[in-house]
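note to self: dont lose this again. the chain is below, predicted strucutre after it. 673 aa total, dont forget to put it in the shared folder this time
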Amino acid sequence: MGIPQRIGHALLALATAAAVLAPATASPAPPSLEFANPDSQSLFGTAYAAALQNLLHTNTIGYDARYDRSGLLDPATGIVRAGGGYAQPWTRDASINSWNATSLLDPALAANTLWAVVDKDTGGALRVQQDDQQWDQVVWVTAAWHHYLVTGDRSFLQNAYRTATATLAIREHATTAGFNPAYGLFTGASFFNDGIAGYPAPPADATESVSTGSMPWPGVASGMYLSTNELYYAAYAAAAEMAGQLGRPAPEVAGYRGKAAALRTAINQRFWNPATGLYDYQLLADGSRGAYQEGSGLAFALVFGVADPAQARSILAHARELPWGMPDTFPHWARYSDAQPGRHNAIVWPLVQGLWAKALAGQGDQNGFAAETARLAKLAGNNSGFWEIHNGTNGVVDGGWQRLGDTVKFHWGSEPDQTWSATAFLDMVHTGLFGLTFGSRGLSFTPHLPAGWGDVTLRDLHYRGAALTIALHGAGSTITAFRLDGRPAPASVPDSLTGAHTIDITLAGAPAGDRDGDGVPDARDRCADTAGTSALDGCPDPAHLEAEDARNTGGVKTNVNHTGYAGRAFLDGLWAQGAASSFTVHRATTAPERAAITVRYANANADTRTMTLSVDGQPVRQVGFPKVSDSWDAWGTTTFADVPLTGRDPVVTLSYGPGDTGAINLDWLELRR
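---
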C-alpha cells in the first residue's frame, strides 16, 4: 500500500540509519541456476542471478522500528522494500514479493516483511494495515497462507489467521471498499490499478480531471473489479485452509468455504463475458459492464481456479498480449495511444507478466510460458536489471503517461531495481520452469522445460530442513522418470526431509513450435527465444546486431528520446564507469579469426570519447568514438579492425572502464570480415 500512484516516494525514501543497515542474522545461501546450453545460461541464468541480487541484497534493508506496529518483527532480521525509489515495504509489494519468492528463499526475511505491513486496532487485534489503499489488503492473506505452506511455521500461521479473519471482517463491514450485497461482490479499485490511468471513461473522464489516483473517483470507489474480487475469493479459501490446519471448529471452516464459493459464483455471473471469451474488467454500481481485458485479473482467474476448464481454454485462446508481454489493462483508452501509453493501461509491468506466466504454466501452455519468461529475461538483460514499467510495443523503459485536467499531461519515470519485477522472474523459474508446488505435507513438482532451453539444474535450494539440487533433463511437461538420490520415487518430497539431496527429473512431450517466429523449429533452434536466421540455427546474424538486443549492465538501458536510430530503440547510460554493453556474436564456425567490428553511435560531446573493447571478458584495447555532431540525433560509424574471435559464440563488450571517457549512445554493431 502507500500513497496513490506512489506519489511522494522521494519523501517516503527518507529513512533512519538503522533502516539501511544490513540484517544482523545470517540468511540462507541463495540457490544457483545452471543451464547446459550457453545461450540459455546467458539469457535466463544471468537474469536469475540479477533477480536474486535485487531481492536479497539491493532491496533488503535492516530492521526499522517504524514498521513494527504488529510487535511481531524480529529486530535481528531485515525487511524487503518495494524497490529503487520506494523505501517502504507496502502491503501489495510485501505480499507479492513473499508469495513470488521471499518465503522460499529467506523465510525469516519474508515473515518480517509480511509483519511489517500489519498493525493493531485499539483493542490490540492484528489486522493488515489500514490506509488509503484499503481495497488491496487481502492479497496479504494469500501470501501468508503460501508462507505457511513453504515453511510449516505454525506460530506464524496462528498469528496470520488472526490477522486474516480480522481484516476480512473489517472489509466486509466497510462503507468504502466493502461488500455490495446487491451484486455479491466487493467494491473498490482493481488490485493493481491505484492510478486513474488504469480505468476507461467512465468511471474516468477524458482529461482525468478529478485525481491521478483511483479511489477519489466515485465510480471507481463504488465499482467492482475482477482482480480485487478474485483476491477476496482466494483470501476466503486461504482462511478456510488456515482454520482447518489449526483445528478450528468445523462451522468456522465451512463458513469461509461458503463465502469463497458464493464469491466465485458471483464473479462468474457478473464478469464472465461469452461474447469475448474473457472476464470483463469492471462492473459499475449502476450495472454497466466494461468488456476490457485486465492482465492480473485473467491471471488470477487461472491461478486461483475461478475459471472452469472451458473458461480457462477460452482465456488462453482470446487474451491479447503486446509484443513485450501481457499488458496491465487493454486496449488503449481513447485518451492514450501507442505513442503515449497510459501508466496503467496498454503498457507492460513485469509484475503482471509474472502473474500471467504463473497462470500459463499452471494451464500447461508451455510455449506461452516460455515466451513470457524470455521476454522478461530480455527486458532485464537489455536494461541493466529489473525496472518498474516498459513500453509494451518496443520494450523501452517507460513509466507511461497520465493526465490531470485539460492542460497537464505528464510522462512518468520508470523506477529501477523494482523488487516485484525481480521476484516475478524468480517465480517464473521456481513455479513455472521447475514446477515447485507447496502443500501442507510436502513439495511436489510439475516442471515445464521448453524445447531448445537445454538441461537445467537448480542447486542448493532450501526447503524446510532440506537442501535440494534439482536437475531437469529433456524437454516438456511429462515426467518420464523421477529420481531422489538416484532411486526412483514419486514426484514429490515430504516436508520431513532433511539434509542434502539430489533430484533428477526427465521430461518429455515438449510441443513443437517456433516461439520466436524465425522459421526455425524450437527443436533445432540454438537461440529458441531470440529471433535469428535459419543459416545460423536460429541465432541472430552477427552481420547486424541491434544494440537494444545486447546484454547491458551498470545502468545502460534502452531509450527512444532521440531520432535517427535503427531498430526499436538505442542504448543510453554509458555515462559512468562500470557501464557496459555485451553482444553475443553467434558464428557459423568455431575457427579462430580476426575480424572487423563496426559500431553505429552518437557523440555530441566536444571531443572523441573512449571505451574499452573486450572479447569474452578479456580486454583487447581502448577504442575511440569521434564526435559526430552537436546533436544527439545524429549518428556516425566507426570500425575497429583486427578483433580476435574464438569459439562459436564469442561475446564482444564495449565498457566504460578506468581511463575511459564514455558518454556515448549506441545503435548497432556489425561483424565484418
